[in-house]
Amino acid sequence: MARRTFFSFHYAPDNWRASQVRQMGVIEGDAPVSDNDWETITKGGDAAIQRWIDSQLSGKGCTVVLIGAGTAGRKWINYEIVKSWDDGKGVVGVHIHGLKDRNGQQSSKGTNPFDHITMCSSNVKLSTIARTYDAPHSESTAVYNHIRNKLAAWVEEAIQIRSKY
Questions:
Q1: DSSP letters along 35-59, please?
Q2: Domains in the chain and their CATH numbers?
Q3: Neighbours of 139 (CB within 10 A)
Q4: What is the average per-residue pLDDT within 79-89?
């Protein structure tokens, strides 16, 4: 049975790459949000965005952070990571810069978003606990295949890691 998973990513620059991962079918992810739906949600302000994120995280066992060039340190990415961890969900990062966007372009590698999260109880960066993965390939098709072949195992590992804390 596929794990129910929430995908966290920087929408504007990475939605095309994120869509490729979400449509692989190797894990059960959240339903994609259209540009119009996202615009409606964001017009409601921070409280509406937070409610939407919380509802999307409900019932999920893991959050997969799809890491693009500008993902790390973003307010809502950080919120999704912290909320997921605090709710006992696994968290894992997957670099997606090697996937091509709708214009056939790859991007630069982003920094680890877990470096921006400090565990309050231990004053330890989440990056020392949660894993991130970067395909050892530069060609987009090989990156895609690597992620597709490994993603389910990474999600399972993230859930196991979280169960230890």
A1: HHHHHHHHHTHHHHHHHHHHHHHTT
A2: 4-163 (3.40.50.450)
A3: 12
A4: 97
**Strands 28-29 and 118-119, bridge-based pairing:** unpaired
Strands 124-125 vs 118-119: parallel, antiparallel or unpaired: antiparallel
- Contact between 24 and 147 under an 8 Å Cβ cutoff? The reply is yes
Q: How far is CA 16 from CA 54, 63, 82, 156, in A?
A: 23, 18, 25, 25
Cα–Cα distance measured from residue 103 to residue 7, given in angstroms and rounded to the nearest whole number: 22
Report the mean per-residue pLDDT for the chain: 93
How many CA within 13 A on the CB side of residue 77? Answer: 25
Give dist(CA 35, CA 48) in Å, integer.
Answer: 16
d(CA 161, CA 3): 15
pLDDT digits (tens, 9 = 90+) for 18-62: 999 999 988 876 666 665 677 888 899 999 999 999 999 999 999
Tokens of 12: 């504007």
Contact 71, 65 (CB under 8 A): yes
